Amino acid sequence: MTQAYTALARCYDRLTVDVSYDKWADHLQRLFRRSGRPISRVLELGCGTGSLTRLLAQRGYAMTAVDLSPDMLCIADQKCQGLEVLFLCQDMSRLRLLEPVDAAVSCLDSLNYVTRPADLKRTFQRVHEALVPGGLFAFDVKTPLALESAGGQTYLDEDDDLFCVWRGEYSPRRRVCGYGLDLFVREEDGSWSRSSEYHEERAYTMDELESALLGAGFRHIERYGDKVMSAPKEGAQRVFFTARKES
């Protein structure tokens, strides 16, 4: 097994063509407007290959984008050439910025990949420190129901030059869903290469997340359904949170 998001990095955009990043950016802007404060400097945690980063930068935000994978960041940097984006290769729980930001965002369940609760608490603390007074933190997570449902499932993605198999296994004891991934890619000479990765996501309850936010100093915590401005419904598989740093 290679390190997570190493082999996958060069194929990630092809495997996520169904993700409507415009809708994610639209929703973040709605959350920004609801905050009632001017937002120009934005931190993105877990930026991946920078698709959302690029959209937000194109919409006028000065972006600082953080990811732990150098391979993903390399692609993101190429994608955002000519835009006002600073890329940092950092662990979320050890986040350090040179200057504060008006808002921090983390999308597409990036925070579920922080599988140790202590690291999640440190991440929230570091985000709180990185925000200006009154700054906004907005993120989404997969719910425990979503991750439990992924256990025992097999997922296939393919195109003419790519074949990817994901297998999900959920551990009730650890409350973690692990994904074993096999990736087959056709190379320029016509041969096929194979690589494997392993990913894990933790099932945090909504109350655990709210408690961690409060412990980090956040207030005015709100929950929303999946890219809507109303509360999540029972059985939701993705929930958004917003929280504010006190002015």
Q: What would your notes on this structure say?
A:
Helix content is 28%, strand content 35%. With 247 residues, the chain is of the alpha/beta class. The strands form two sheets. The chain has a seven-stranded mixed beta sheet with strand order 3-2-1-4-5-11-10, with helices on both faces. Strands 6-7-8-9 form a four-stranded antiparallel beta sheet. Strand 6 (154-159) and strand 7 form a beta hairpin. Helix 2 (21-35) crosses helix 3. The chain is globular, with a radius of gyration of 18 Å. The N and C termini lie far apart (46 Å). The mean pLDDT is 96.
Short description:
The protein is an alpha/beta fold and 247 residues long.
Q: Which secondary structure elements does this structure contain, and how are they paired or packed?
A:
Blueprint: H1 12-15, H2 21-35, E1 41-45, H3 51-58, E2 62-67, H4 70-79, E3 85-89, E4 101-106, H5 117-130, E5 131-142, H6 144-150, E6 154-159, E7 162-171, E8 176-186, E9 192-202, H7 206-215, E10 218-224, E11 238-245
Parallel strand pairs: 1-2, 1-4, 2-3, 4-5
Antiparallel strand pairs: 5-11, 6-7, 7-8, 8-9, 10-11
